[in-house]
Amino acid sequence: MSPRNADTRAATATPIGTDRDVPVIEFDRVQLAFDDVVVLREVSFTLLTGHTKIVLGASGAGKSIMLKLILGLLRPDGGVIRVDGRRVDQMSERELMEVRANVGMVFQEGALFDSLTVRENVGFKLYEQTRIPLEEVDARVREVLGFVGLGEFIDRMPSELSGGQRRRVAIARALAARPGVLLYDEPTTGLDPLTATTVDVEIVKLRDLENVSSILVTHQLRDAFYIAEHEAVREVGDGFRVVRASPDKAEETEFVMLREGRLVFEGHASELRHSRDEYLQAFLS
Question: Tens digit of pLDDT for each residue in 158-174?
Fold first, then answer.
């Protein structure tokens, strides 16, 4: 990656984490409550560079709240949250903006601007928040749309896209600023299985081909296991293939299960499937 000047740093900062053995996100006994309702109870976990952490749990278990805490949109009542070694739970809003520049977010419904074209949606942050020349922004937009297989849709409106295409455009938008971490909040909810798989493939590609670290919040078990047990491998040129049942990736991706704000499981796909815990068995059934 080529050096960038100060004007472009906020939107295209150096990706978080370069050492695959160093945590890029850490939760250390994090607690949060809204009035008398406890949302998180001393939750601790780490995310390593280039790895994926999949967060499972019933509705209201605190899954999406964790993403807001990482971004500094909420502050915990107790515990420590670090992103790339820096405590975000103690940062000012100005300091948080620097951290957020390196963390992309993919929302449940895609959250595209309906009045903007695909090109304008994907490049929005670069167009509005940097002084990068327009031709360079346009080149980056075309690059990331090509990565998610939607290059020919660059001038379409969101209303002209299918649900799966809108989610993939949202992933391209999050990717445009070259973040080191991507946070996914229920990215396949509401999609049919075949369309959801196209979104899963993009998540796998970003992890394996772009070395993006990610936290995926979902209650879709099919998608969670697909992402955990597949890998993308480069072929000649810019092509890729997804390899089924990759033992290496299955051992890198970890599942976290929340129940009533507590972390009740952390481990790999095989450990989750073979757990004898009654709650986990009921959740998986």
Answer: 999 998 999 999 999 99
Higher pLDDT, 250 or 163: 163
Length of the chain in terms of residues written: 285
Residue 127 vs residue 169, higher pLDDT: 169
pLDDT at 213 over 80: yes
Instruction: Spell out the residues 6+ positions from residue 5 whose beta carbon is closer than 8 angstroms to its own.
Output: none
**Sheet containing strand 23-34, strands side by side:** 37-48, 23-34, 78-83, 86-87
Residue of 40, 61, 24 whose CA lies nearest to 180: 24
How do the domains of the chain map onto residue ranges? 6-284
> What six digits make up the tokens of 147?
């990565």
Residue 283: which residues within 8 A CB-CB, separation 6 or more? 56, 58, 257
Give the count of beta carbons closer than 10 Å to the beta carbon of residue 101: 21
Amino acid at 116: L
* Banded pLDDT at 285 (limits 50, 70, 90): confident
Instruction: Give the fold, CATH level 3, of 6-284.
Output: Rossmann fold (3.40.50)
Q: How far apart are CA 112 and CA 92, in angstroms?
A: 28
Taking the alpha carbons of 124, 127, 132, 135 in that order, is the dihedral positive or negative?
Answer: positive
pTM metric for this prediction: 0.86
What separation in angstroms does the CA of 139 have from each of 86, 107, 123, 142, 242? 32, 24, 10, 5, 26
Strand pairing partners for 262?
Answer: 259
